[in-house]
Write a structure and sequence with these properties.
globular; 12 helices; alpha/beta; Glutathione S-transferase Yfyf (Class Pi), Chain A, domain 2; 5 strands; 57% helix
């Protein structure tokens, strides 16, 4: 596959663990693709104009517009089966898809709520983190308009104190599910890396902050998030996320990233 103007195009938010899932799938399969980062907040309308539902990522691939990460992985698997992200047997495939759905619905949103509750009080953390890769004008706009942006994001993410508590609980349950499913094995299902592992690790990455993540983490996390991370860092599930990133995140297959 070429990396020219006809290559797959991923519309993304850089600091987004759901977007990280799509990026990882593209990179794991070594699919040359272009990336374009959207302005947070404005991405909703842009997503709809592109044919999505108001969320990211959106992948334009072979004339299709795909706005669901599970569908993105399925399309990539169909287009480029090797290396596989689905198991060979139906039993294992069903188990993998169930786990993909669980982490997407039950864990990913909770992680997002919890981390935004932690970073939103700190403009100097939140603005560089959420606008990385965008122009100076966007960063200035976010800095000047931050009080209103903070209120809007808190509402959109359900990131009040109660929402953050539920988000942290969902994050811990995600680690527990990883540990229960592993049962002493290296991977969640079977003996090789699958979309279940990719999804769980990607959606837990804001907790673990692995260095293999392609974009920037803050130089220092707010105390609330750092204390939460430290309280979980010795858990097998936390360390498993680190290991999945070390083994399988690999290098970017993006031919442009702007």
């Amino acid at each position: 596959m070429s990396g020219g103007e006809d290559s797959p195009l991923l519309w993304q938010l850089r600091f987004s663990h759901f977007n990280e899932k799509a990026r990882w799938a593209l990179d794991y399969k070594k699919v040359p693709h272009r990336r374009r980062s959207l302005v947070p907040g404005r991405h909703v309308e842009r997503s709809k104009r592109l044919g999505g539902t108001g969320t990211t990522p959106i992948l334009k691939l072979d004339g299709d517009v795909i706005g669901d990460t599970s569908e993105i992985v399925a399309k990539l698997e169909q287009r480029q089966p090797d290396p596989p992200l689905y198991p060979d047997t139906e039993i294992e495939r069903n188990a993998v898809l169930d786990l993909e759905q669980y982490f997407g619905r039950e864990v990913g949103p909770g992680v997002r709520t919890a981390i935004f509750h932690a970073i939103l009080p700190y403009r100097r953390v939140a603005v560089p983190l959420t606008t990385q890769g965008l122009g100076v004008g966007v960063r200035v706009m976010f800095t000047l308009g931050y009080p209103g942006i903070r209120r809007a994001v808190r509402r959109a993410m359900d990131a009040d104190d109660d929402g953050a508590r539920r988000g942290r609980e969902a994050t811990v349950r995600g680690l527990e599910r990883v540990e229960d499913e592993l049962g002493g094995r290296e991977y969640l299902v079977g003996e090789r890396f699958s979309v279940a592992d990719l999804t769980a690790a990607a959606l837990l990455c804001p907790l673990v902050a692995p260095p293999e993540f392609a974009y920037d983490w803050p130089p220092a996390w707010p105390d609330e998030w750092e204390e939460f991370r430290r309280s979980l860092a010795d858990r097998p599930g936390y360390q498993w996320v680190q290991e999945m990133y070390r083994r399988h995140r690999g290098t970017s297959a993006a031919v442009s990233d702007d």
